[in-house]
């Protein structure tokens, strides 16, 4: 199966995993194991903006906890 991520009409959902890492996923596909939906479903541009605003520390959660204690 292929998916054209650049099609203007394409809709995506923003996913997050247990390490608080984000990903885009085609809105009409089931969410893959290990990922949860954030509730955001929109165009690629809008999803990218959401991720940029919310994923401010690229380090996995376990590394942040190990290094920062948070």
In the CATH classification, which architecture applies?
Alpha-Beta Complex
The parts where pLDDT drops under 50 for at least 5 residues are: none
Largest pleated sheet: 3 strands, antiparallel
Helix count from the secondary structure assignment: 2
Distance between the termini: 40 Å
What is the typical, i.e. mean, pLDDT?
91
By secondary-structure content and strand pairing, the structural class works out as alpha+beta
Q: Give the fraction of residues assigned to helices.
A: 25-40%
Helix-strand string: EEEHH
**Judging from the principal axes of the Cα atoms, what is the shape?**
elongated
Residues in β-strands, percent: 25-35%
- How many domains? The number is 1
What's the CATH superfamily, by name?
Answer: Structural Genomics, Unknown Function 30-nov-00 1gh9 Mol_id
Q: Indicate the CATH class.
A: Alpha Beta
Strand order across the largest sheet: 2-1-3
InterPro entries: MbtH-like_dom (IPR005153), MbtH-like_sf (IPR038020), MLP_fam (IPR037407)
Protein name: MbtH family NRPS accessory protein
Pfam family, one: MbtH
Describe the 3D structure.
- 27% of the residues lie in helices and 27% in strands.
- The chain has 70 residues and is of the alpha+beta class.
- It has a single domain (12-68), classed as Structural Genomics, Unknown Function 30-nov-00 1gh9 Mol_id (Rubredoxin-like, Alpha-Beta Complex).
- The chain has a 3-stranded antiparallel beta sheet, with helices on one face.
- The longest helix has 11 residues, at 44-54.
């Amino acid at each position: 199966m292929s998916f054209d991520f650049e099609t203007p009409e394409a809709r995506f959902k923003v996913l997050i995993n247990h390490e608080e890492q984000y990903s885009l996923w085609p809105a009409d596909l089931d969410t893959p194991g290990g990922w949860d939906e954030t509730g955001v479903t929109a165009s690629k541009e809008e999803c990218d903006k959401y991720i940029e605003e919310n994923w401010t520390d690229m380090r996995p959660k376990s590394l942040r906890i190990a290094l920062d204690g948070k």
